[in-house]
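Support request, please re-run this one:
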Amino acid sequence: MKFLDQAKVFLKSGDGGPGAVSFRREKFIEFGGPDGGNGGKGGDVVVEAVQGLNTLIDYRYQQHFKAKRGNHGMGRDRNGARGDDIVLRVPVGTQVLDEDQETVLADLTEVGQRIVLLKGGDGGFGNASYKTSTNRAPRKFHPGWPGEECWVWLRLKLIADAGLVGLPNAGKSTFLAATTAAKPKIADYPFTTLTPNLGVVRAGDDEFVIADVPGLIEGAHEGHGLGDRFLGHLERTRILLHLIDGTADDVAHAYGIIRTELQAYGGGILADKPEIVGLNKCDAIPEDELAEKKAALEDASGAEVMVLSGATGQGVQAVLYRLLLAIKEAKAEEPDVLHPPPTPVQPRNWHLRDPRSSGDDDEWDNYDDLDDDDDDRED
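Re-run finished. Output below.
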């Protein structure tokens, strides 16, 4: 299955059904009166987070989604049926953004979470609703309120407790494969990882989820390499594991490249996250050289550097327990926070205006277009 983490779709809620114009005509009933029913409400557009999905590939081949319109009213005071809703099933962690790709309309972070994104139009009134003491036989009706429509972006941001960052070939995929049951592609050339990967880590009696994204290179925020578009999957993590290739000539420079890209991502979303620095591939480095590179990396990062090897497992357990401890501390401080993006959720004004409440009778008179010469509809 191909991985797709964003898609643009067109949504439209159902129009309201028109009201009916009808009069009760029965034998021996001298004054039957109007009995036209109201139209049914249009269907809503609903977004639901479901379990078992991890990609938006379904929205690659279908981009238009329209709910059903409400049925029309009928005589004998029968109201029209409500239109069927249309439900967009998305992976957990999906955000719905406005067409400007900045305003967040919905953020689904739990399985089963449902949000009515667009409400269907209300059904129109039949002529029975316009009956008054002075107008006993109205021939007025309303065709129903239109539904709403818009283009939106669906953007998937994976939900994980920890995230892996580093240059290409820093050993991130090897670390993920060694600590989880995930099977990422591993090779000795750059950009082996082309899409994000998730894995469940077991440390003692506890578990946490770790995410691996494609490697960054210098200038990624300007579009170099694969760019920084996959960094959005790390926004919800509570801590980052920054892996440095120990076989590189200048480990301090490698560390600075990634920190620059995280800072350029903006908003302090990733740059301000807690970070654990790991010097990877220690099995391929002589001890004296390893000590020099560790010291240089500690000077550049200003933090303790953990030495490990994803290939041999050396130092891996210590890193996992350090990650677990940091995750537990973060959850204790903010148990319900998933580190949302900086853009605030700005819901649309979904409520439809009822023209009757404005006192504008001209709008309603436009629908009084029936033929008065119809003998079957005379008083």
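The chain has two domains: 1-157+343-362, 162-333. Residues 316-333 form the longest helix (18 residues).
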